[in-house]
Amino acid sequence: MTPKKVLLFTLSSLFVLLLLSIVFPTDGIKINHNITLKFITIEELINPPEQNKVDISNIINGTDIKEITDTVSFTDEKDEKENFDSVMIDSQYIYYKPMPVKIDSVVRYIDFPDNTRSSLDNFFKILANIKNERQIIRIMHYGDSQIETDRITDYFRYKLQTQFGGSGPGIVPAVKAFNFKSPMIQSVSGNWKRYTIYGRRDTTVKHRRYGMTGNFARFTPILADTVPDSLKTFTQTELMPHNLTSYASINISQSPYSFRPTKKFKRCKMFYGYNTSDVKIKTYADEQLIDESILPPVQDYKIKTWNFETTPQNIRFEFEAEDSPDIYGFSLEGYSGINVDNIGMRGSGGLFFTRMDLGMLSRMYKQLNVKLLILQFGGNIVPNVRENYDYYRKAFSRQLRTLKRIAPDVTIMVIGLADMSKKENDIYVTYPNVPLIRDALKQASFENNCAYWDMYEAMGGENSMPSWVFYEPPLAEKDFIHFTPKGARYIAKMFYNAFMYEYNRYLRKNK
Questions:
Q1: Which residue has the higher pLDDT, 125 or 103?
Q2: If one looks up domain 86-167+336-511 in CATH, what number appears?
Q3: What tens digit of pLDDT does each residue of 46-87 get?
Q4: For 295-327, b where at least 16 C-beta lie within 10 A, e where not — what string?
């Protein structure tokens, strides 16, 4: 092609693009709710749009986060006696009377349905008298992918266990959906399958017994001649290739990314049930066999408990059975103080409780001594943009009513969704429905006398997510949805400060 033709082609292309920029609708052509075709305008070429950023310096400076290492997770007994507002792990030493907890400035206060601000008082009463409990007080933190890898929960757990006693990560699932290294490292051998009440349900499951974490796991048969060496520790008779005996193992080990109180626990509880045959189970702590048991067939869920003199670095469970039990999870804990469970549910909008076996869930909450539920959802509702979210308010309100009915002694509070951004004309802006979903969650909370913490406003409100993404170092991921570990720590500290502010206010009110 000659230079003259190249020039002519280029000019013709530019002319066509110029015409398109003139005739193309300014608002674009809408394909569906989520997709709109747009064409750059001459004005945008001359004056390209600039990314709006919310100034979050006061938020970050006000939170005044400090890097926490395991070296400050504990103090010795001498220091404890001089500092009565904190306790050693597992309530070995506790303060003599309820005292205000020192906190930094509060960036965003908790919202309450009325002026009495009493929605959390029942839990605060338990917290103030925890020295008399001599048992575990449990907080269950349910949330979507925003809390995966123990984000937000880890700091909240660390601060409460340091202040009020307790140890261990609490409940961990039998099989993790993703290979996260926190709060514990887990691996499995054998043919395992994980079933969840949220997301796409497996239609082969004909019941609603998903347990306190909304999921359970089972192992399925493997041929005898394919059993891995790691599972050949059982005393076995000669097996034929068609034998349907199942072999499987679960390995749980310490994570270097967890706070020190999380790494310390004195016992392990396994929640299981509904196996139709005997289940042989061998339990190893740091490669030493500590227990060999047979779990008989059951038509309910059961709890198997192991106690440890010292915290093992690694626990391995080996199973042999013709029919796997449903395994709902393991609780790694001490004997008293606080446990805070991290229950991340990727893709969930928090509308699953009413689809569960409520009788089973009620009994589990009671046996676990759950005293506070924290529900953190809403982000997964954002991509399906609507103009009205009354349906979500009603559906979420129904979840809260149901939980209050089956667990009347449990306090419930809600954490709202974060800011989320989409790209428009080369800049990132808040999804228009984020405030609507926030309002729906808040209204549902207030309808059921639940406290609400507005994470959206805490991080700066509209168009604040780009400020977190472009902060140095970044406080949010480049998906403009999730926090980085450092950003999650800021959010966790803001929430903890707001929570402890209300606890201190409760103490002053109830001298």
A1: 125
A2: 3.40.50.1110
A3: 555 666 778 999 899 888 666 554 433 333 333 333 333 333
A4: beeeeebeebebeeeebbeebbbbbbbebbbbb
